């Protein structure tokens, strides 16, 4: 059997990554096994659990339903690119502040899905957050503190926007 | 310093997990690592006639194939760990790989080891197994019937165990004013932590040491068992559970796959990884519940209960899993009288082999089933005598002044105020108001239902002599070392093995309070048999009540030694030195003082220690609790059933739980939410479905209804605190309260809503179709 490979170039968390991959390699396995970005997790075979969710060109995508070759030329953000200890993303702050995780296994995917939600809807109601969580399964938290975490993150993002706006306005006034 | 015990601190565990820096089993990558994949039986019951692995072995990248024959004499079957006493137990262990027969769909037949996971999977499809299919038996009652196929040729009637406890004379029922009887099916559920199982094994031929990283709730138990299975001294097997993505009981059990991966790594002298796919998790990781429970409650017209007898026919699956025998017997049987004063009780359990995946512990393990039967029959009793279910409960709940209370099943409930938790829950929901609203809505053809459960459960398994008496193959004590470094920073070692509970934070709170040091100065070390001498792991909500108690005692021992050293340095007697908020002071002369950090340094430098005092500063405890602990609570669920579609809308869910002393209310509430979600999941959606020939029809997340966020209302959680007298923290256990309290609260609510239809009982899960069919048949018959 001859293994066919394809050369791909993917911008992952801002850095250009290149590799020779089999066409059947899943994006999730490419990130985890080839690039050693193990923050993205795999929890099911059927795209139900959402633990593998990453951003592809700014949209939340389940990386187990996408082939690595399909990401050729795309920009991918994983949980590692969301924020780190010294500069956490508001969604990470929200999950930490509001106890939005227990075992933490589904959490990277849940956070990426919620980053996607907040991009579309910066001020979601509880119901809208619960609907937004449709594509993910968390077995630990009962979702309630996840909802609180997302609300907290939304508030942090809005406050940051307001501060930015106020500073821009102050700049204009000078 | 602020009080640490009782503070809702955010978790120390979280930063690494939310930045992608957690380290789970599948994140481990070792040089030269191979990948394993299992060939699993497609049949529930079949004879293996031949296995042809030539095609697989010819595939480039395949390194080895192992069959059951290859492992004979090398890897033993994985034994059960609970030889339930007095039950005529016929234990059947799971072979490492099936040799002559397979007994459930998904049983391992062969292992392929290859250069990567894709090749391994390809090779699985190239292995040809010739089977002779045999008749399968799926349901436990069918398995007991005359002429049923035998799962194991030498186990007559497929009866693996017969366990009896308590006695009630027949007259208690024949002569009682009221007797209600109900058959309840506690359906089979699948634990489904989002991280599946997995193992990475590495053998060092130079030192003859094998290391297995695996998804374990109790690495020391896994070491003990796998060492025996693989024929390795415990000293040369190291088991590490790194970050573990949930367990809910399914990662307590010892399994064949992890042991076989260990064997392959040793045999090939290369690291081998196997990560369970979700499809495999459904087929091969232990299931739970699956008990047919027939309960009979006798009492008086005034609402007083007088006797209960219960028959449990439990489906144990094809083999006896680790704690599989204990769940429907001891765990279930001791709790059948629930939170009530029922003077006489008797239980009998039939444990039955079938051609299904073995069953074992799942969040609550036996206690949710016990709570379900008693809480359902109490409602049916109330309905029979025309009394409000809350009134019947108030009449029979064990009174506050009766604690410690010895039940008819012979166990001593430690502490409680059951009436108080019920009262608080009723107040939160406005029970009286709800009943009036229900009346009004019924006039409009809307079906509101209110369900109450006043559960009690058994946690914090101990003491070890009890474990011995009931045939549990291990101890149930817990171990902690509190090690103080010269800097005054502290490492806490625990034999418990957390997997999402927030134990690093909880235990740090205990130590911070005891030692008066910042919480950030404390780290928790767990989950590695090389770091921690011994321990029994995390299950049955024993973490804080047993493991935390050991931590508290070990910290006290540190303080006692540090005080001796401080007194010596301060030239005072130890009795004249007081310790608070991290400072040792001479009583009456507070300017003469030493900080905890100063003593940590001087204890480790040992330049000036009192006579007879050894250097360094460590405290250790091996805490064996004198009794179990018994968390309890009152859960109230309000539902509305759609009369046209049978759909159930959860309107409100109130949980007032008493878990003894609450160390961190934020984390405790998180545990309640998770437990309630799983309990509601069992009540309304979840359930394993098998075809008659033993095919698991609910074998993926597409067919097994896992609870989603939009299904739930806000869970209104409160705590009352009746500290347990059996451990120094006064802690009970919080992890299982929800899975125990919720199923009966929800089912009672739905049945309450359906009362106008004359429907008394439906089995879980209460799917819209089931509810609609029940309503429709009543309408047609009306």
TrEMBL record, chain A:
Keywords: 2Fe-2S, Iron, Iron-sulfur, Metal-binding, Oxidoreductase. The keyword Iron-sulfur applies. Gene3D superfamilies: 3.10.20.30, [2Fe-2S]-binding domain. Residues 6-82 form the 2Fe-2S ferredoxin-type domain. It comes from the Bacteria. This is (2Fe-2S)-binding protein. It comes from Brevibacillus brevis (Bacillus brevis).
From TrEMBL, chain B:
The keyword Oxidoreductase applies. Residues 19-135 form the Aldehyde oxidase/xanthine dehydrogenase a/b hammerhead domain. Pfam families: Ald_Xan_dh_C (PF01315), MoCoBD_1 (PF02738), MoCoBD_2 (PF20256). Keywords: Molybdenum, Oxidoreductase. InterPro entries: Ald_Oxase/Xan_DH_a/b, Ald_Oxase/Xan_DH_a/b_sf, Ald_Oxase/xanthine_DH-like, AldOxase/xan_DH_MoCoBD1, AldOxase/xan_DH_MoCoBD2, AldOxase/xan_DH_Mopterin-bd_sf. SUPFAM superfamilies: CO dehydrogenase molybdoprotein N-domain-like (SSF54665), Molybdenum cofactor-binding domain (SSF56003). Transmembrane segments: none annotated. This is Molybdopterin cofactor-binding domain-containing protein.
């Amino acid at each position: 059997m001859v293994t066919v490979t394809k050369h791909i170039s993917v911008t992952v968390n801002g850095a250009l990554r290149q590799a020779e991959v089999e066409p059947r390699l899943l994006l999730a396995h490419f990130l985890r096994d080839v690039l050693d970005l193990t923050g993205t997790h795999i929890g099911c075979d059927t795209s139900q659990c959402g633990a593998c969710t990453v951003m592809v060109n700014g949209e939340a995508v389940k990386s187990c339903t996408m082939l690595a070759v399909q990401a050729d030329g795309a920009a991918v953000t994983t949980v590692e690119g969301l924020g780190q200890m010294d500069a956490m993303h508001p969604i990470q702050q929200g999950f930490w502040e509001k106890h939005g995780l227990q075992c933490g296994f589904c959490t990277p995917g849940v956070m990426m899905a919620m980053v996607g939600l907040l991009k579309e809807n910066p001020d979601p109601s509880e119901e809208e957050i619960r609907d937004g969580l449709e594509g993910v399964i968390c077995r630990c938290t009962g979702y309630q503190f996840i909802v609180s975490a997302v609300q907290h993150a939304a508030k942090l993002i809005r406050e940051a926007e307001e501060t930015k706006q106020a500073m821009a306005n102050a700049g204009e006034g000078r | 310093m602020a009080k640490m015990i009782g503070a809702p601190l955010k978790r120390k565990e979280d930063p690494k997990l939310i930045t992608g820096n957690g380290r789970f089993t599948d994140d481990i990558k070792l040089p030269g690592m191979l990948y394993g994949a299992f060939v699993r039986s497609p049949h529930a019951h079949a004879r293996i006639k031949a296995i042809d692995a030539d095609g697989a072995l010819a595939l480039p990248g395949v390194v080895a194939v192992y069959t059951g024959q290859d492992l004979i004499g090398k890897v033993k079957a994985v034994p059960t760990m609970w030889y339930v006493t007095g039950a005529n137990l016929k234990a059947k262990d799971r072979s490492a790989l099936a040799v002559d027969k397979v007994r459930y769909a998904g049983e391992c037949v062969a292992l392929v080891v290859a250069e990567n996971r894709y090749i391994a999977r390809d090779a699985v499809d190239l292995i040809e197994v010739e089977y002779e299919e045999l008749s399968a038996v799926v349901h436990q009652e069918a398995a007991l019937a005359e002429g049923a196929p035998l799962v194991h040729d030498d186990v007559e009637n497929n009866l693996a165990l017969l366990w009896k406890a308590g006695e009630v004379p027949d007259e208690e029922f024949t002569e009682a004013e009221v007797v209600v009887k109900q058959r309840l099916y506690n359906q089979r559920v699948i634990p489904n932590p989002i991280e599946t199982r997995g193992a990475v094994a590495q053998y060092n031929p130079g030192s003859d040491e094998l290391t297995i990283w695996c998804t374990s709730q109790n690495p020391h138990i896994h070491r003990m068992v796998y060492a025996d299975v693989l024929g390795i001294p415990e000293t040369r097997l190291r088991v590490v559970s790194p970050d573990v993505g949930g367990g809910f009981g399914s990662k307590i059990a010892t399994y064949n796959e992890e042991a076989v991966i260990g064997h392959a790594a040793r045999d090939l002298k290369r690291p081998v990884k196997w990560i369970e796919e979700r499809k495999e998790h459904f087929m091969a990781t232990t299931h739970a519940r699956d008990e047919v429970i027939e309960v009979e409650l006798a009492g008086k017209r005034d609402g007083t209960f007088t006797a209960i007898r219960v028959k449990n026919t439990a489906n144990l699956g094809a083999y006896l899993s680790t704690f599989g025998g204990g769940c429907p017997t001891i765990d279930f049987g001791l709790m059948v009288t629930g939170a009530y004063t029922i003077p006489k009780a008797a239980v009998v359990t039939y444990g039955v082999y079938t051609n299904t995946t073995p069953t074992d512990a799942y969040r609550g393990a036996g206690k949710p089933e016990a709570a379900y039967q008693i809480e359902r029959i109490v409602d049916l009793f109330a309905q029979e005598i025309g009394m409000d279910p809350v009134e019947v409960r108030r009449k029979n709940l064990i009174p506050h002044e009766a604690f410690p209370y010895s039940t008819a099943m012979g166990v001593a409930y430690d502490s409680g105020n059951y009436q108080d938790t019920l009262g608080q829950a009723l107040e939160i929901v406005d029970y009286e108001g709800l009943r009036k609203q229900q009346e009004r809505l019924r006039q409009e053809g809307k079906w509101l239902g209110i369900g109450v459960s006043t559960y009690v459960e058994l946690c914090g398994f101990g003491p070890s002599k009890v474990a011995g008496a009931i045939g549990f193959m291990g101890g149930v004590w817990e171990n902690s070392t509190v090690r103080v470094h010269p800097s005054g920073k502290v490492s806490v070692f625990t034999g418990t093995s957390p997997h999402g509970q927030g134990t690093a934070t909880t235990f740090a709170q205990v130590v911070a309070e005891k030692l008066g040091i910042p919480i950030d100065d404390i780290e928790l070390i767990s989950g590695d048999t090389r770091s921690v001498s011994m321990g029994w792991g995390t299950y049955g909500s024993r973490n804080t009540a047993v493991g935390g108690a050991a931590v508290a005692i070990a910290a006290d021992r540190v303080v006692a030694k540090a005080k001796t050293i401080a007194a010596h340095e301060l030239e005072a007697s130890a009795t004249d030195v007081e310790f608070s908020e991290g400072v040792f002071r001479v009583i009456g002369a507070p300017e003469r003082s030493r900080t905890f950090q100063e003593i940590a340094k001087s204890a480790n430098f040992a330049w000036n220690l009192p006579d007879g005092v050894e250097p360094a500063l460590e405290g250790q405890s091996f805490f064996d609790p004198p009794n179990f602990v018994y968390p309890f609570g009152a859960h109230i669920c309000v539902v509305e059933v759609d009369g046209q579609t049978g759909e159930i809308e959860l309107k409100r869910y109130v949980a007032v739980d008493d878990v003894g002393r609450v160390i961190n209310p934020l984390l405790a509430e998180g545990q309640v939410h998770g437990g309630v979600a799983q309990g509601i999941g069992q009540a309304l959606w979840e359930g394993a479905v098998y075809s008659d020939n033993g095919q698991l029809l609910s074998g993926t997340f597409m067919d097994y209804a896992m609870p989603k966020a939009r299904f739930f209302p806000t869970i209104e959680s409160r705590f009352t605190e009746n500290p347990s007298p059996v451990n120094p923290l006064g802690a009970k256990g919080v992890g299982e309260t929800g899975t125990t309290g919720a199923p009966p609260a929800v089912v009672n609510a739905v049945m309450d809503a359906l009362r106008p239809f004359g429907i008394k009982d439906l089995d879980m899960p209460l799917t819209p179709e089931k509810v609609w069919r029940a309503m429709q048949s009543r309408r047609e018959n009306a």
